Structure formats: C-alpha cells, structure tokens
Amino acid sequence: MAHSVAEVDILENGAGVGMAGGSAYQVVQWLAMRGEVDTAVQLYEDLSAAQRERLLREAMAASVEERKGLVEVLRRARDFNGAARLLQGSGSEAEAASLYEQGGNQVEAAEAYLRSGDIARAAEALERGGALERALELYRGLGARESMAQCLARLGRPLEAAVVYRELGNVHAEVEALCGVPVDDARHLDSVLRICTLLDHEGQTRRALALLVDTLRGSEDARSDPAVLAEQARLLKRVGRDTEANEVLARLPGSSPQPSTVPQVARPASATSGYGYLKAIPIFGELSLDDMKDLYRVAQQVLIPEGATVLEKGTQGSGLFVLLEGTVDVFSGPEQDAKRLNTLGPGAYLGEISLIQDGLTSAQVRARTAVRALRITRAGFQHYLDTHDGAALRIYRLFTRNLAARVRALST
C-alpha cells in the first residue's frame, strides 16, 4: 500500500515527527481512520517515550470518539496504561480499569472501577497495589469480612484481624493473627492466653504448652502473672505432667486459680493444624513465608461426617481439601459397584487442580470415617491470587512445570 510523503518520513525516521507537516497524533489518528491499524501501531511503537506522552496529551484534548479510535492502536502496541487514559471520561470506565490492570497500574485501575461502580474489584485492585487502608474501608463498606481480616493482618493490626476471624469462626486464622501481636504490646499476654485456649480446644495442647513455656522464658511479666502460671499448670495436667503442674501451682500467690472453663475435648493432643500439609503441596512450593501464611488464613476447617460425599464425579470442582484427620475413599464413579481406586488419610489433598483450571471432577470421593479437613474454595483462592501478584506468578509457574512433566510422562 502506498503511503504519503509525511507517512514515509515518519515511518523511516521517527525522530522527524512534526517536521513532515503533521503531529504524531494527527498521523496515527489518520492511519487508524483509514483502517491501517498495523501501520499506526508500528509508528506508535517507534516513537520515543517523550513523543508518546506528547501524543497522549494531544489526544486527551480531542473528542471522545476520536480518542476511542486510538484505543485499539495503543492496545495492540501494548501501551495499556495509555489506552486506559484515552478511555477516561468516555463512559467506558470498566474497560479502562481492565487496561490499567494489564498495565500494572493497580491504583488507577481501582479509581476507574470506583467510577464504574464496581466497588469489590476496586477494593481488590487497591489491595493488590498495596493501598491496604483504602482497600480495608471499601471491604468494610461491602461487609466482606474475610477480606477485611486479611487486610488488617497485612497492615500489622493483628488484634483487630483476630476479632474478625473469631466472628467468622476461623480458629486457625485467629491463632495466626494473634501470633503477630508484638511482645511489647500491653495485650501480648492476653493474646498468648487466648492462643493457648484455642490450640488446646483444637487438640494441639502440646503446641499451646510450648508457646506458653517460650513466653515465660522471654518475659518477666509472664513469670509473675497468675493467669499465665495457672494456664501453664492446666496445660501440664492436660498432657499428664501432674507433678510439674503442682509445682507451678505452688508458686501462685494467694488462693488457688479458678478452674478452667475450656471444655475437655476428645481430640488427641497431637492434632495437626494443617499448615505443614498445606505447605507441602507442590504448587505452593515456592511461596514465601508471608504469602504462605496469608494463604493459610484463607483456608477454613471443615468437618465431614462419615459416608458423606466430598467430591462428586462430573461436577464442577469446588476447591482444595487437605485431610487433617480421618480417611476418604476414591471411587471411579458414583455407582454402588464403582471400583475403589484409593484410600487417603491425613496429609493427602484433593481438588488442587480446580483452584486453577475450570473442569469437572474426575473421581467420586466419599468419607470413610468422620473427616476434619482444611478447605480453600475457588472463590477464596481466586481472591488470594488477585491480591498476591508475586505468589500467583510462582504458583502458575509450578503448576505449568508440573503439568508439562505429566504430559511428558504420558508421551513416553
């Protein structure tokens, strides 16, 4: 296709834009209007950063329709932020927000989502961009308490996060939040006592005792606090160390401590929290400690009765299950005579592929015994990915690597 002298001059010597009788904006716009989008894209890509900025400023003074005509050029040139700028005030705020996200400009994406009325996506973009205080306020207005708790934890406000997790009934997340209360906080010992109560109630009495002993070693205040000593004695009795418990009680001033109101539970003292099991799943193998803790707080503990269906073959995957207690049977299908393929116990996990890929469940899974498990839903995991860019990259990289290894194994 033949080009005008001005076009040839610009295409062959980008630095000469403006010397050929038209600005870069005018020539790019003219090419786009003629349907020569590829040429317009090439011209735009060949401009310097300063020239592109001048083009955008000139374009912003044009009409909405003229600006929209340039959006596809900038999109195909992969200047997503520039394309988003051209859409501002055009009534296409949601499209602009998506482009800002592609360009990595999360705060501008959030502002565009707000203008479009999509408060939830605005909050996610703000959280992803590190504007946690603003994200928190939007989540608060939406009543999105799990997201509120995550923001509070990431903001270093563990006591507030713990309150929300307590309201949600997420015990292990409340424990993780309370573990973040600094030792110089006046409420540190109260937090330790609360953690001990929760851990003991969850069957992790030895972990609670270890935490309390460590607190006593590092804090003079703890060693003179009757409530802390009374809790130490109670936990010692719970693990059968009555002599040591009585020695601690003997050091208590005044009257005997009040009996504990924590109900005795049937779970063994060695019950697991599941963090180690979750951490061992291959697709999470490159997550940092902070990202791993954030993911752990997304998980919820669930109790599944004996005989209940955990996963139903042929239905949409519902997320990840990590077995903490009990066993499940894996069958080839839902039929009564279906072949049993496997029996899985603590540490096994199911449904991890459904976190990342849409698809139907490939097997029928039923609880052989009562089961305690960690569950991460697809929605919860997607929110985690949306607000943890670095973690998402590492998870997808490992998932792709593992998938490639499976394909190679099948082809050999």
Automatic annotation (TrEMBL):
Record-level Gene Ontology MF annotations: cAMP binding; cAMP-dependent protein kinase inhibitor activity; protein kinase A catalytic subunit binding
Classification via CDD domains: CAP_ED
Cyclic nucleotide-binding domain sequence ranges: 283-402
Secretion signal span: none
Transmembrane segments: none
Pfam family, one: cNMP_binding
Domain of life: Bacteria
InterPro entries on file: cAMP-dep_PK_reg_su-like (IPR050503), cNMP-bd_dom (IPR000595), cNMP-bd_dom_sf (IPR018490), RmlC-like_jellyroll (IPR014710), TPR-like_helical_dom_sf (IPR011990)
Record's protein name: Cyclic nucleotide-binding domain-containing protein
GO cellular component: cAMP-dependent protein kinase complex; cytosol
